[in-house]
Amino acid sequence: MDNVKKTVFSGVQPTGKITLGNYLGAIRNWTPLQDEYNCLYCVVDLHSLTVAQVPAELRKNTMDLVALYIACGIDPNKSTLFIQSHVHQHAELAWILDTVAYIGELNRMTQFKDKSRKHADNINMGLMNYPVLMASDILLYQTELVPIGKDQTQHLELARDLAERFNGRYSDTFAVPEALTYKSGSSIKSLQDTSVKMSKSDPNENAVVSLMDDKDAIARKFKRAVTDCDTAVRFAEDKAAISNLLTIYSLCSGESIEKAEFRFAGKGYGEFKQAVADAVIAVVEPIQAEQKRLAADKAYLEGVLKQGAEQAGRLARRTLDKVYRKVGLVGRFR
Ligand code: AQP
């Protein structure tokens, strides 16, 4: 770890098939940070337990996501790549942070309200505690920058509040992290309902493009995507559906939104949607091939994860020891 470089932390839950939203809003932005910062990229498996999981599927999704991170360009020799549950300090620091977090502030979190509505039969304590565990993930590594999609900015704000509250109560301990959100792609919308973000857990499969979808499925989903009432391919506030497709097209093709508007002026939605699908397919196909190759190489993935857990564990121990001392716990006798 280079002590001069700032520290970056981010993660994705292995809750299912990773979406184009997860990729464009988060993972894709991680790769270019690897040279400039000390990056820690984590598969946050403990978070995923807040919603009912099938254990065997969770195990598979976790390893598939590790392979996907690497296929998307995360280099385990540059970044620390690990699984959250392999570093036990995440859960331990979350307990300490629980003692400075207020029920009122957790109760107000938009994601808690949304997920409580979606999973009314399973409103567990973990669902409410999710942002405290996320704060622990971040603060454990003295993280300064957190690349996230827009949906996570409220949680990051809470992590900042908890860091400042703890520092105020027990003296300076945690770096106070900043969100790194990107102008474009930070909130990719559902292809069927632009009032909600594209989400892994959306039960309508036409709403979500998975990074592992085959090209026919991708073409079909874009063909069925909702559009706006006129026929103009234009980026505008009152044209949420086409603006969403233009954003996806621009991020995947590398062409600016303005150039794309010009290219598709006077052309129908059919041609535009096919071009969006083609641009997405061109991005995901090489990732899919590499992910499949890596997922089959268990020994390699295990080596990466062993090294990642050791590196992350060393840093996590340093912060947690400091925290335990500050709050007055007696250190273990050796
Ligand atoms: N639609 C999106 N647009 C842009 N960014 C997104 N992210 C998620 N959806 C979009 C970003 O992806 C990162 C990882 O998210 P996560 O898996 O930890 O949890 P999430 O935000 O709850 O993602 P999902 O897909 O909606 O998962 P489920 O359905 O399981 O809850 C975060 O940086 C997030 O901002």
Describe the overall structure.
It is built from 13 helices and five strands. It is mainly alpha-helical. The strands form two sheets. Strands 1-2-3 form a three-stranded parallel sheet. Strands 4-5 form a two-stranded parallel ribbon. Helix 10 crosses helix 12 (269-295). The longest helix is centred in the C-terminal third of the chain and has 30 residues, at 298-327. The chain starts with 6 loop residues before the first strand and ends in a 7-residue tail after the last helix. Adenosine-5'-tetraphosphate is lined by residues 12-13, 15, 19, 21-22, 25-26, 148-149, 151-152, 186-188, 197-201.
Task: Draw up the topology in text.
Layout: E1 7-12, H1 20-30, E2 38-43, H2 45-48, H3 55-71, E3 80-83, H4 89-98, H5 103-107, H6 110-118, H7 125-139, E4 145-147, H8 153-170, E5 178-180, H9 215-224, H10 240-253, H11 257-263, H12 269-295, H13 298-327
Parallel strand pairs: 1-2, 2-3, 4-5
Adenosine-5'-tetraphosphate (AQP) binds next to helix 1.
